[in-house]
Amino acid sequence: MAERLTAGDTAPDFTLPDDTGKDVTLSDLRGRKVIVYFYPAAMTPGCTKQACDFSESLESLAGDGYTVLGISPDTPEKLGRFREKESLTLALLSDRDKSVMTAWGAFGEKTLYGKVVEGVIRSTVVVDEDGTVSHAWYNVKATGHVAKLRRDLGLDRADGAS
């Protein structure tokens, strides 16, 4: 079983290519809060719903000081097609060898349709300005996850102001 991150852990640093082939390094984002979410595959129904939810919330999340990074084992080329097809605005990163997913506890044994398989564990980790994990959720549901995340982080305000 992959070691899962918990609040207080130092987030493992990484450098991964985005959908344009440009490298993105987590430690370069120090001073900002970063939401790192891991998903199994671009252009599948659940992953598309989740990516669209994050994309639609990106402006308000950015207003609250968050950068969002979506990570999957897809190639940068496939991620580029995903971004274009769904008009996504968040950073999509490619972890082809799943080393970052493994280090973050987002790859390993999971139950799929009643069978234990090895694969990507849909997960979201929030990293604070100092590179420390503030929140970590594993086996999250694709649908409704962004709304739950906003609630858990205290970002939803009744008046809609940010």
Automatic annotation (TrEMBL):
Thiol-specific peroxidase that catalyzes the reduction of hydrogen peroxide and organic hydroperoxides to water and alcohols, respectively. Plays a role in cell protection against oxidative stress by detoxifying peroxides and as sensor of hydrogen peroxide-mediated signaling events. Its EC number is 1.11.1.24. Belongs to the peroxiredoxin family. BCP/PrxQ subfamily. It catalyses: a hydroperoxide + [thioredoxin]-dithiol = an alcohol + [thioredoxin]-disulfide + H2O. GO terms for biological process: cell redox homeostasis; cellular response to oxidative stress. InterPro entries: AhpC/TSA, Peroxiredoxin_BCP/PrxQ, Thioredoxin-like_sf, Thioredoxin_domain. One of its GO terms (molecular function) is thioredoxin peroxidase activity. Keywords: Antioxidant, Disulfide bond, Oxidoreductase, Peroxidase, Redox-active center. GO terms for cellular component: cytoplasm. The lineage of its organism: Bacteria, Bacillati, Actinomycetota, Actinomycetes, Micrococcales. Monomer. SUPFAM superfamilies: Thioredoxin-like (SSF52833). It holds the Pfam family AhpC-TSA. It is an enzyme of class 1 (oxidoreductase). CDD domains: PRX_BCP. It comes from Phycicoccus avicenniae. The gene is bcp. Residues 5-158 form the Thioredoxin domain. This is thioredoxin-dependent peroxiredoxin.
